[in-house]
Design goal:
single chain; 178 residues; alpha+beta; 2 domains; 4 helices; elongated
C-alpha cells in the first residue's frame, strides 16, 4: 500500500495509532484486573470465614482442655517424654541377651544364680545378679572373675553377702559399658 500523505501527517497518523493501541491495551488490562478482582472475592471471603472458624475452634478447645484437667494431660505428656528419652538411649545400650551372656560366660563353680535383673541407665547398663553360693570362697572368686571381664566397668559386691559360712544368699550389682 502506498501512503501519499505528507511526512508530518504520517508521523501524526503513527502517533495516533500508537495512542489508540496503548489506550486499548490499558483498557483491556483494566478490564482484566477488575474481572480477576471480582473472581477473587469468593476465595477471600471463604478464607476469612475459615480463619474465624478456626479461631473459634481453638478457643473452644482451650476451654475444653482447661475444664477437663490439663494437669492430667501434662503429667501424661511428661511421662511419655521421659519414656521417649529412655527409648532414644536404648540403641546405644547392649541388649538384655548380650548383657546376660556377659554374666553367664563367667565360671560359676559353687554359684547358683536365681535371678538376673536388667536396668538400663543413661549410657551404661546395670545388672543385678541374685543367687546362692555354697561358700564364701566361691562367691569371692565369682565376683573377682566378673571384675576381670573387659565389658564390665564395675562390680558392687556388698560385704553383707559374706555373713554366713555356707549357702550364702547374695546380690551383686554389675555395670556394663555400652
Amino acid at each position: 500500500m502506498i501512503n501519499l500523505l505528507p511526512e508530518h501527517s504520517k508521523h501524526r497518523f503513527k502517533r495516533m495509532y500508537l495512542l489508540r493501541l496503548l489506550s486499548l491495551s490499558l483498557f483491556t488490562g483494566a478490564i482484566l484486573f477488575v474481572i480477576h478482582s471480582i473472581l477473587l472475592v469468593p476465595s477471600y471471603v471463604f478464607l476469612q470465614e475459615r480463619v474465624i472458624s478456626q479461631e473459634i475452634e481453638k478457643e473452644f478447645l482451650g476451654r475444653t482442655l482447661a475444664a477437663s484437667g490439663s494437669e492430667e494431660v501434662e503429667e501424661r505428656l511428661r511421662i511419655l517424654n521421659k519414656n521417649l528419652s529412655l527409648l532414644e538411649t536404648l540403641p546405644m545400650q547392649p541388649l538384655f541377651v548380650a548383657a546376660t551372656e556377659e554374666v553367664l560366660e563367667v565360671s560359676r563353680i559353687g554359684i547358683k544364680i536365681t535371678q538376673i535383673t536388667y536396668s538400663p541407665k543413661d549410657a551404661n547398663v546395670q545388672i543385678s545378679v541374685r543367687g546362692i553360693a555354697t561358700d564364701r570362697d566361691s562367691l569371692r572368686s565369682f565376683a573377682k572373675r566378673l571384675e576381670e571381664r573387659e565389658k564390665i566397668i564395675g562390680v558392687d559386691f556388698p560385704i553383707g553377702n559374706l555373713s554366713r559360712e555356707k549357702d550364702l544368699p547374695f546380690t551383686i550389682s554389675i555395670i556394663l559399658e555400652s
